[in-house]
Write a structure and sequence with these properties.
By secondary structure, this protein is mostly helical. It is built from ten helices and two strands. It is globular and about 50 Å long. It comes from Felis catus.
C-alpha cells in the first residue's frame, strides 16, 4: 500500500501554516484505512461524526460519496462563470483567445487537453487570476470545490487555499516520483477524489489516465502559478469520460 496509508496532518487541511520541502516536509501520519471502506477514501474528507461510516455497507458509502460530490459540483458553474467574466481583464490578446477557447470547450462538454490548460499558466500567476487577486466569491466557490468550508473571512480563505494547494502540489511531486503504477486501485481512486474527480463510478484504468494528466499539469507549474492547479480541480474533472451518471 503506497498512498492509502498516508493521511495528511489535520493542520494542513484546516488552515495552519505548512512549509513545503523537497516533496512534503509536513509530518505525515501513517494509518491503514478502516476495514469496510469502499475504496479507502481519505478520512479527512468527512466531518468527525461521520467516521461511523466504517459500519456502513459499501453501497451506503458510495451513495454518501455521490451526495458529497454533488455538493462539491454546485460550485462548478460559479467558478467557470467567474473565469468567463475575467477574460476581458486579461491584457494579452493571445491569452484571452486561449481562455475563451477553453471555456467554450468545457461549456460544450469537451475534456480539455493538457496543453489547453498549461497555455493559460501566465493568467493564473498574476492579475486577474493569481492567488492574491482572487475575489471573495471565487475563493468561496473554490473552497467548496476543495471540500473546505467557505464560511471564513477572505484573508483566511486565501491563506487556507494557498496552504491546501501547496500541500497537494508537493504531494503530486512525491507521487510522480513514486509512479502511479505503484498505487493500488483503491489508492488511485482515493487520489483522484481528492483532486476533484468523482472516481466512484469510473474504471480503474480511466482513473489512472486522469491522474496521470493531473500530475503532468501539476509538476509543470511553479509556486506562483498554483492558482491554476486550484482551478484545475474543476477544469480537468468536469467533463471527464465516465464522471457523469
Amino acid at each position: 500500500m503506497a498512498l492509502s496509508r498516508v493521511c495528511w496532518a489535520r493542520a494542513a487541511l484546516w488552515g495552519s501554516a505548512v512549509t513545503p520541502g523537497p516533496y512534503v516536509t509536513r509530518k505525515l501520519q501513517l494509518a491503514r484505512p478502516r476495514a469496510g471502506l469502499a475504496w479507502g477514501a481519505p478520512r479527512y474528507l468527512f466531518p468527525r461524526q461521520l467516521l461511523i461510516q466504517h459500519f456502513w455497507t459499501p453501497k451506503q458509502q458510495i451513495d454518501f460519496l455521490d451526495i458529497y460530490h454533488a455538493l462539491r459540483k454546485q460550485s462548478h458553474p460559479e467558478i467557470l462563470g467567474y473565469l468567463e467574466r475575467v477574460i476581458p481583464l486579461v491584457s494579452d490578446a493571445g491569452l484571452r483567445w486561449h481562455m475563451t477557447e477553453l471555456c467554450t470547450k468545457i461549456q460544450h462538454g469537451t475534456h480539455p487537453a493538457i496543453h489547453d490548460i498549461l497555455a493559460l499558466r501566465e493568467c493564473f500567476s498574476n492579475h486577474p487570476l493569481g492567488m492574491n487577486q482572487l475575489h471573495a466569491l471565487q475563493m468561496k466557490a473554490l473552497s467548496r470545490a476543495m471540500l473546505l468550508t467557505p464560511y471564513l473571512p477572505s484573508f483566511l480563505l486565501r491563506h487556507r487555499l494557498k496552504t491546501h494547494t501547496t500541500v497537494i502540489h508537493q504531494l503530486d511531486k512525491a507521487l510522480a516520483k513514486l509512479g502511479i503504477g505503484h498505487l493500488t486501485p483503491q489508492e488511485v481512486k482515493s487520489a483522484c477524489y481528492l483532486r476533484g474527480l468523482n472516481s466512484t463510478h469510473i474504471a480503474e484504468e480511466r482513473c489512472r489516465a486522469w491522474l496521470g494528466e493531473w500530475l503532468q499539469i501539476s509538476c509543470s507549474l511553479k509556486e506562483a502559478e498554483l492558482s491554476l492547479l486550484l482551478h484545475n480541480v474543476v477544469l480537468l474533472s468536469i467533463n471527464y469520460t465516465g464522471s457523469r451518471r
